[in-house]
Amino acid sequence: QKEVEQNSGPLSVPEGAIASLNCTYSDRGSQSFFWYRQYSGKSPELIMFIYSNGDKEDGRFTAQLNKASQYVSLLIRDSQPSDSATYLCAVKSITNTGFQKLVFGTGTRLLVSP
Amino acid sequence: NAGVTQTPKFQVLKTGQSMTLQCAQDMNHNSMYWYRQDPGMGLRLIYYSASEGTTDKGEVPNGYNVSRLNKREFSLRLESAAPSQTSVYFCASGDREPNQPQHFGDGTRLSIL
Asked: What is the model's pLDDT at position B35?
């Protein structure tokens, strides 16, 4: 089992719709969760992070965390063609040496059609 | 603010050649990281430096060495490049607190023939 799993997609949604991106993780001790957006040929850029159960909203983006189910999601409301990118889920946890490691999923490709 | 700066942006090497990828950050972060990104594999950690003066292996360290020159700079060296090391390399920096993210450089596209 991979440490962080995402559906590779592509997830296709029409402009204006809600895009729902999902991520599961295996380490129950994980402390914080990050969503990065990566455009083709570019570096990952941070969109949001969440570390408490529940929802966290920032503009059109909402991150949702359910630690009991080991599940984190990202909702994008009013999706725009400019949101078309690969979305990486990253999970932070502590190794047995005390190091805070960040483990990435392979990403979900989102396509928003005009 | 430059953030995380990587050089070079592109490089083509022949098998067996060596080279060093440079990374510098101006955010006063303690920790720095080197990742490689390959299609379908996601970002994989090569080496990291939790703080100045320390380095440690990540998930895929074979064929690489690193140097944490000072708090700002963290370099990645390929001593004898192999075609399997063709990839996009990202440097990142961050702090160790749980809610602190990592910030990425623009990447180095490396091709080994």
From this structure: 97
